[in-house]
């Protein structure tokens, strides 16, 4: 019996935030989350050379919990807004400093109110029905071991893993890394990790 031909890999998904955040090779990003923070930054993101390329900042607002993803020059790339009074932990992500519906990029929510393992469903702005997710995150946030997939497929686009150092533990910081696969929008991946970070904080506040 003839061996069936190998199927070519699926094409990479289109950039979510922008093509400038896609590279034709894997990218390793280092995340430094400040466990005790007196500054405006929630955590910083560095490339493999140690250059800080993103930062997640708190945006002070009396009505909504808001965060911003900014680049190295301080320009706001995305704004995150948490939706209150929902059955799931739900975040909306907008382009730039806007929170207008026309600037919505994607929505992310937990798969259920109570979950032992991390599972986040992501719906792009054009997916109004939200019957099936465009992306999903699965794994264990507690172990800093999560994978990001396209839809309900096994097509993995990024993977998160721990990266503890003696220095990071001594100064009260949690350091971990994310490997973003070729031609995947790494600003989008950082945004998802930022949302997981916020969901974890909310969970701890309620305990």
TrEMBL record:
Which PANTHER family does the record cross-reference, listed alphabetically?
Answer: OS07G0230700 PROTEIN, PTHR31087
Similarity annotation: Belongs to the LOR family.
Q: What name appears for this protein in its UniProt entry?
A: Tubby C-terminal domain-containing protein
- Which source organism? Eucalyptus grandis
